[in-house]
Amino acid sequence: MAFLLDANIPPSLADDLIGHHVEHVISLPFGTSTSDGEINDYCFRNNCILITQDSYFYDSFILLKKPPKLILVKLGNQRIRELRSYFRKNRELIESLISKHSLIILTPESIKAS
């Protein structure tokens, strides 16, 4: 699996997605100034799963099916170490669900797939 971490996701999360190709938007030509449309296009061209907290991408996914796969993080204001801990604790479930579904929504109470 290939993942793209949006600007609102810490680059260090890549360390917790072991065995996968992970990029952060800072590695794209325009870095964190990359537009949402360009991020969608990049994910589509490179078959990346986007991990973001930005609800724009949820709307775009629902309306346009872009990006092709989305993990929407709705965990509130968490510290980086708490976010990373959440991913480490739930990594296998998240990976299993995203391999079968196109949308995963992470909340403190649940992990929803559709």
What does this structure look like?
The chain is an alpha/beta fold and 114 residues long. Helices cover 37% and strands 21% of the residues. It has three helices and six strands; from the N terminus they run ββαβαβαββ. It has helices at 36-46, 55-64, 80-100; strands at residues 2-5, 21-24, 49-52, 69-73, 103-106, 111-113. A six-stranded mixed β-sheet has the order 2-1-3-4-5-6, with helices on both faces. A hairpin with a 4-residue loop joins β5 and β6. The chain is globular and about 30 Å long. The mean pLDDT is 96.
Short synopsis of the structure:
The protein is an alpha/beta fold. Helices cover 37% and strands 21% of the residues.
- Which strand-content bin applies to the residues? 15-25%
Count up the helices.
3
End-to-end distance: 18 Å
Radius of gyration: 13 Å
Instruction: Count all strands and give the number.
Output: 6
Shape: globular
Overall SS class: alpha/beta
> Mean pLDDT, as a whole number?
96
Residues in helix, %: 25-40%
> What low-confidence regions span 5 or more consecutive residues with pLDDT below 50?
none
Largest sheet: 6 strands, mixed
